[in-house]
Design brief:
By secondary structure, this protein is mainly β. The protein has strands at about 15-30, 35-45, 50-55, 60-65. The N and C termini lie far apart (about 85 Å).
């Protein structure tokens, strides 16, 4: 795995990554004497919009929700709306059914 600093930045940006610390940053001591923090570090990638990694207390979770387009080379993805449905046909004159006798 490469270091974050090895990624070439996108044009107009200093880096491809947003690193943000959220939550309580104070260190607490558990009853057993172990240190614990209730904060998380969030890594967001600008080259692959929709990619996020969250790290907290040595555990991490990576998730990607997107269309698979890079943020720098592909145009934004805007799905097109479907064409209009076919309209109703013209009204026709009602005709009464002729009774059939056997």
């Amino acid at each position: 795995m490469r270091a974050l600093t090895e990624d070439a930045p996108l044009p107009g940006l200093e880096t491809n990554w947003l690193v943000k610390n959220v939550g309580e940053t104070q260190t607490f001591t558990k009853e057993d004497g172990a240190a614990c923090q209730y904060s998380a570090v969030i890594l967001k990638n600008f080259r692959w919009p929709g990619n996020m990694t969250i790290v907290s207390n040595g555990n991490y979770c990576s998730i990607y929700i997107g269309y698979g387009y890079k943020g720098d080379t592909q145009p934004l993805f805007f799905p097109q709306e479907p064409k209009d449905l076919q309209g109703e046909g013209e009204e026709c004159e009602e005709k009464h059914e002729v009774p059939v006798f056997m």
